[in-house]
What we know:
The complex is a heterodimer of chains A (about 190) and B (about 475).
Chain A: E1 6-14, H1 21-24, H2 44-47, E2 70-73, H3 85-93, E3 97-100, H4 105-112, E4 117-120, H5 123-131, E5 136-140, E6 145-147, E7 153-155, H6 160-168, H7 172-177, H8 180-189
Chain B: H1 8-14, E1 17-19, E2 27-30, E3 33-36, H2 42-51, E4 61-64, H3 73-77, H4 85-101, E5 104-106, H5 116-123, E6 131-134, E7 148-151, H6 154-163, E8 165-168, E9 172-179, H7 188-199, E10 207-212, H8 221-229, E11 238-240, H9 245-251, H10 260-271, E12 283-288, E13 295-297, E14 305-307, H11 319-328, E15 343-346, H12 354-364, E16 374-377, H13 382-390, H14 393-399, E17 403-404, E18 425-428, E19 443-446, H15 449-458
Parallel strand pairs in B: 3-4, 3-6, 4-5, 6-7, 9-10, 9-12, 10-11, 15-16, 15-18, 16-17, 18-19
Antiparallel strand pairs in B: 1-2, 2-8, 13-14
Helix pairs in contact in B: 2-6, 7-8, 12-15
Amino acid sequence: MEPFRTLTSRTVVLPAANIDTDQIIPARFLTTTTRAGLGERLFADWRYDEQGAPRARFVLNQPAAAGCQILVAGPNFGCGSSREHAAWALSDYGFRAVISTEIADIFRNNALKNGLLPILVKEPTARWLIAHPGASLGIDLAACSLTLPDGSTVSFPLEPFARHCLLEGLDELGFLLAHAAEIDAFERRA
Amino acid sequence: MARTPQTLFEKVWQRHEVCAESPATPAVLYVDLHLVHEVTSPQAFALLRERQLRVRRPDRTLATMDHSTPTTTAQLFGGAPIAIDAAARQVRELEENCARFGVELLGLRHAQRGIVHVIGPELGLTQPGKTIVCGDSHTSTHGALGALAFGIGTTEVAHVLATQCLLQRKPRTLAVSLTGSLARGVTAKDLILAIIGRLGVSGGTGHVIEYRGDTIATLDMDARMTLCNMSIEAGARAGMIAPDETTFAYLAGRPRAPVGEAWERALTLWRGLPTDPGARFDREVAVDAAAVEPMITYGTNPGMAIPIGAHIPRRPGDPVFARALEYMGLCAGEPIKDQPVNVVFIGSCTNARLSDLRTAAALLRGRHIAPGLTMLVVPGSQQVKRAAEAEGLDRVFLEAGAEWRESGCSMCLGMNGDVVGRGQYAISTSNRNFEGRQGAGARTLLASPLTAAASALRGRVTDPRELC
């Protein structure tokens, strides 16, 4: 995994609450057996019409969204199905961070394992971000801080181990494998 | 010194800590049972191949296929090919992965195949006190037997395959205390929809729910599974119910339940699992189960549920609410009752066990569904299917005008081609009414098997108490 240290990008805003993983990547695209190419299908039913043509009004289809790596979303983003395809689709599309006041548990875990940073902010910050789509933000993961366009910073919480793995570009599997002796001992006890 | 009173969750968690959590690192948690299916496993097995790893404990791993599998007998047993190429590839890939890594597979034509959350308990593999994971959010179902069971992503599926462990921070606990018996015409599905309405769709985030109180003793295992199944719809990864005599009677004699002395030892262990008197939960919510009415959803998440006789609420100035109603083609302030429906689906890991089918069949017996309506009955497993057929339930459904299918997830998420058409209304016994969940543009009304059957007879949303 590529290390994640800092990121500067403009935002795309999807203000709706409870954006579930069925919206992020509809089930009919889950028949894939690889991780690649899911970005094309990201938010498929919002992004494309019945004939498969882009819906001009959807935010990702607007010129301003090009190159944006930060998604700002309403509360409880990523609820529903555990499909990691949701994190893969966001990541494959080019997003590297998702900001919300609430992020669903399984999605948050999946995001962290794919270098997609889930950032929790408080209500006033979220309100400001939702009201200012396209705002340019700075993220400093080592400091767990988010810099707003006026230069002010807000800090965000992140589980220390997940942060360590992101900063160093480590995956958790290596850490778990290194515990083989403890796992052996546990199995003998059990 | 007296031991600190513990909750059911804390007891199960503590017994599975390979390494306890520290401020810097999460706990290494041991997994007793890993259930695998065709949709969320291919990329995990690929990671194992890439890293040249083996499956650490094939004996603690069981695979089946349910999500993308066809439900027509012709495709499963009649020699017809699986209609969706990509689904056929996924099925093949799971077969190959299981063969290569030595994992037991209850494959496409196996007599014990079924929805992963139906077959675990049915086989007696799901047991009190176990930790159980699966790459599926409805793994919470298994908590009905007193297991700690939760859904994981595909990367974590690879972690468990390779190490039989997961890195986890200890979640908080939430007690949902239920009092009273369910009224006539009210089922566990109505109860969980009422609970989600109360907690909100993110009210359980970061928590493990324990459903407790005197209502639990009145619920059979199928009902308890329905309750725990939808914990994730309130944001909670796991829902648990303390094991009791009902649990033990359910498990006794099941093919993979312990026998003889091992059964006696297990019983001793299981009897010690319920939450100790005086144990503290991080949060507690009380729900009067006796006051719950048949519930139905009107919006695009499971928290948007009302009693079937109620009017759709008004929330002026809430654009998300307005959008949900626009998608559903429903109006604030109007009754939901008598809304015409096009499709009725009885199935899914929420409501496709034998008692669910019996409940629906009892209402349909000797009657016919409304003209023009499509009704799909999809048993939760091949064993449920055979048991239902032995009682003649298949005849009841077929004579009523419904389709009787092979088991699988089917129309709950429409991956296998069983979909609801654009703009059509479906009453579904499944768990999610998200936009497009049952097919692009489909409009889902979640309800109990009883309400689904009653509504099928009239072709519109019907209060089952008017018919039973």
